[in-house]
Design brief:
The protein has helices at about 25-40, 70-115, 115-145, and strands at about 5-15, 15-25, 45-55, 60-65. The protein has about 140 residues and is of the alpha+beta class.
Length: about 140
């Protein structure tokens, strides 16, 4: 039993990789891929080697050729995505610091409101005035009957 090999040429079109052709011969696939890459018709060309192992019924794949335009575009996209990730990480760290400061201020303010003796005095005065008003009202109702 021998392993079966196939070589697929993929082209990058409209933002997607598409299978253009399949070869049994590696040299022929590489020649055709280089020709397609040199033509400038596609923004990307790659050759994928697929090996089917009959004993284990598994397929292994690996890229054996990438067109030069794809490498330049991939490098540019990689740099761009790295910058975006760094910016997002910085923004996340800044937001976490702001949230921590905001929570600390809110907690400090909540403690200040609870512990104020002036606030306790005004609440007690309000309750006493409310009770006095109710007593006066009850007295007035009783006298009117």
């Amino acid at each position: 039993m021998s392993d079966m090999k196939a070589f697929e040429i993929h082209t990058y079109q409209s933002g997607k990789w598409k299978i253009d052709s399949v070869f049994d011969d590696r040299d022929l696939a590489m020649f055709e891929a280089r020709r397609m890459d040199d033509s400038g018709r596609y923004s990307g060309v790659r050759v994928i080697e697929e090996i089917f192992i009959e004993q284990t019924q598994q397929t292994r794949t690996r890229t054996i050729f990438r067109g030069s335009k794809v490498e330049a575009e991939n490098a540019a996209e990689l740099r761009k995505s790295k910058q975006v990730r760094q910016q997002a990480q910085q923004n996340r760290a800044r937001r976490q610091q702001e949230d921590a400061a905001r929570r600390h201020r809110a907690q400090k303010q909540a403690v200040r409101k609870k512990a104020s003796p002036v606030r306790l005095f005004y609440i007690s005065l309000f309750i006493l005035m409310l009770a006095g008003g109710m007593m006066y009202g009850l007295y007035y109702l009783q006298a009117g009957l």
